[in-house]
């Protein structure tokens, strides 16, 4: 910034305030939180300070960093809606963001009162980022993520690189960090700054929420894992964009449970960002093309770039499959070795992955030649352990077979049921070949029936479990449908109430416009006939002029409705 003056930077996350202070000169730049930037009610508010700078001719511009958060976080941060008050300042306003879809430009312009803003766009495609999606069974996301992270933790520490694991909740974040023995980061942690600095020094994995997903710029991030479906396409683009800042190759993996995406899309059918990230996960097309088509309005697929593709395109498919098979095989070997050593030797029950991690030499402090020597020595140790493991495994299998054989001899045999004829009453049993064959056939039928019964029970149990899960899904769908109908009814009632209020206001306004008509009403009103004496005189005059009517003939019906034939003299 060559011109003398002050530039105000408005940031919307706590993590960005210190970052901007470190990057900028405090004499020319003022960094302010978004919660205080638009406030006009508190004493000594920022707008008053900015107006003072403007009056002195020092205020050059106001820059709002990560402005897309104004429309994505306004539901639970109402103070972000006050940023529109920055339009009161007599200076240019610059809005910066890397993830504003073209379909949401109007929403941002309305929120910031900038109807005639000029948009300058660049491509959001990260050519060195490979996008993968991995699936797991329902309820197995955390267990699967733990297995994936343990392998990546070793690789990252060995290479001196970093990785970020994003979780949807603080509880899941803390549980994964504790299991991996690594740092965690979320907005409620008072030690988050120290843990972040330690992670930047040590490398490896850090488990975080979306609080570490926007605006931060750290080098050396090579692996990004999302446990569960990301909140939206904008959030995923921001969080996956934390890696590869220096052009390194980055693996961005999304781990989701089966059925999770479909449920989320159905629940949030009106949210464009959620629909976009859902299609990114479950669609069969190029993932990079889907992301760029939504964020930039122009599709750029993996085949258009000179890099390895996503797990839907070209080399990315084979690379991802090979990596998954290699990871599964390695982790299965490690689990078998650890489990068997712990089982065979009661004195080594404390042996675990953490022991091997602590036994591993500090490769960062070694020269390249020493690293090669240590790697060869470690490979030799692992080979020796694998040989010992195979020997112990065969020995254990032999012991199991001997024990099983001994148990068979101890167990009393069950005599075959040789059915005798009823006329036979002796105490001896005749083992004829025919009876033996019949008894063995009956025993085989009995064993087969028992096996079929067990299989039938297992199938019934599986069917009941599937029916229970299906009922849960149906109940959830019904609950969502009831909630939607309830919201529609409330909206209709509100609209009807507003319509009634409007009609009442119109009637009241029409009555207020009319002039008083009291004099005309008195002149045109009919003569009142409240005088009792006048009423009696008029009634007497009317009686004199009208002859009295003859009495009505008696009724010909009894009280019960029967006909009565009166004699002629009484008629």
From TrEMBL:
Stored InterPro entries: Helicase_ATP-bd (IPR014001), Helicase_C-like (IPR001650), Ig-like_dom (IPR007110), P-loop_NTPase (IPR027417)
What residue spans carry the Polar residues bias annotation? 556-571
Composition bias of kind Basic and acidic residues appears in: 442-456, 463-477, 492-510
Which GO MF terms does the UniProt record name?
3'-5' DNA helicase activity; four-way junction helicase activity
Q: Which UniProt keywords apply?
A: ATP-binding, Helicase, Hydrolase, Nucleotide-binding
Cite the Gene3D superfamilies for this sequence: P-loop containing nucleotide triphosphate hydrolases (3.40.50.300)
Helicase ATP-binding domain span? 1-118
Decide whether keyword ATP-binding is in the record.
yes
Write down the EC number: 5.6.2.4
> Could you tell me which residues belong to the region Disordered?
442-477, 492-571
Per UniProt, residues of the Ig-like domain are 92-177
Q: What class of enzyme is it?
A: isomerase
Q: Which residues form the Helicase C-terminal domain?
A: 141-285
**Catalytic activity, as annotated:** Couples ATP hydrolysis with the unwinding of duplex DNA by translocating in the 3'-5' direction
GO cellular component terms, semicolon-separated: chromosome; cytoplasm
Any single biological process term in GO: double-strand break repair via homologous recombination
Q: Where are the transmembrane segments?
A: none
Assigned protein family: Belongs to the helicase family. RecQ subfamily.
Name recorded for this polypeptide: DNA 3'-5' helicase
């Amino acid at each position: 910034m060559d011109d003398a003056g002050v530039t105000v930077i408005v940031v919307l996350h706590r993590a960005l305030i210190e970052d901007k202070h470190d990057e900028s000169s405090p004499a020319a730049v003022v960094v302010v939180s978004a919660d205080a930037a638009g406030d006009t009610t508190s004493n000594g508010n920022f707008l008053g300070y900015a107006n003072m700078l403007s009056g002195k001719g020092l205020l050059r511009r106001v820059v709002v960093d990560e402005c897309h958060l104004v429309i994505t976080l306004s539901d639970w941060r109402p103070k972000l809606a006050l940023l529109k008050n920055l339009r009161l300042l007599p200076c240019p306003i610059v809005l910066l963001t890397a993830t504003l879809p073209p379909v949401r430009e109007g929403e941002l312009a309305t929120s910031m009162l900038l109807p005639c803003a000029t948009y300058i766009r660049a491509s959001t495609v990260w050519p060195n980022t490979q996008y993968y999606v991995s699936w797991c069974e329902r309820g197995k996301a955390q267990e699967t993520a733990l297995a994936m992270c343990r392998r990546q933790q070793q690789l990252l520490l060995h290479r001196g690189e970093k990785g970020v694991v994003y979780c949807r909740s603080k509880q899941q974040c803390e549980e994964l960090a504790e299991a991996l023995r690594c740092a965690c980061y979320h907005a409620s942690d008072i030690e988050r700054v120290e843990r972040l600095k330690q992670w930047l020094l040590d490398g490896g994995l850090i488990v975080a929420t979306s609080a570490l997903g926007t605006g931060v710029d750290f080098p050396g991030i090579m692996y990004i894992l999302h446990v569960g479906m990301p909140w939206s396409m904008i959030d995923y683009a921001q969080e996956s964009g934390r890696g590869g800042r220096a052009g390194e190759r980055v693996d961005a993996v999304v781990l989701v449970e089966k059925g999770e995406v479909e449920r989320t899309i159905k629940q949030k059918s009106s949210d464009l960002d959620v629909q976009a990230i859902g299609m990114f996960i479950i669609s069969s097309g190029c993932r990079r093309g889907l992301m760029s088509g939504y964020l930039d309005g122009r599709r750029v697929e993996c085949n258009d770039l000179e890099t390895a593709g996503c797990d839907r395109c070209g080399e990315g498919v084979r690379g991802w499959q090979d990596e998954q098979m290699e990871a599964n095989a390695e982790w299965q070997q490690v689990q078998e070795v650890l489990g068997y050593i712990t089982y065979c030797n009661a004195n080594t029950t404390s042996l675990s992955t953490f022991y091997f991690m602590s036994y591993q030499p500090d490769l960062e402090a070694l020269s390249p030649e020493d690293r090669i020597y240590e790697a060869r020595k470690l490979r030799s140790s692992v080979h020796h352990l694998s040989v010992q493991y195979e020997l112990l495994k065969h020995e254990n299998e032999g012991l199991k077979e001997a024990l099983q054989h001994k148990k068979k001899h101890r167990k009393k045999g069950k005599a075959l049921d040789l059915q005798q004829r009823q006329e036979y009453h002796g105490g001896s049993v005749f083992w004829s070949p025919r009876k033996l064959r019949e008894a063995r056939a009956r025993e085989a039928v009995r064993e087969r029936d028992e096996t079929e019964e067990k299989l039938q029970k297992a199938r019934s149990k599986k069917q009941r479990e599937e029916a229970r899960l299906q009922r849960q899904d149906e109940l959830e769908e019904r609950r969502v449908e009831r909630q939607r109908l309830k919201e529609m009814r409330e909206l209709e009632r509100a609209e009807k109430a507003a319509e009634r209020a409007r009609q009442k206001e119109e009637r009241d306004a029409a009555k207020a416009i009319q002039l008083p008509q009291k004099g005309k009403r008195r002149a045109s009103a009919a003569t009142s006939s409240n005088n009792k004496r006048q009423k009696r005189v008029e009634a007497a005059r009317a009686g004199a002029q009208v002859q009295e009517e003859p009495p009505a003939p008696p009724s010909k019906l009894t009280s019960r409705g029967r006909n009565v034939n009166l004699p002629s003299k009484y008629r």
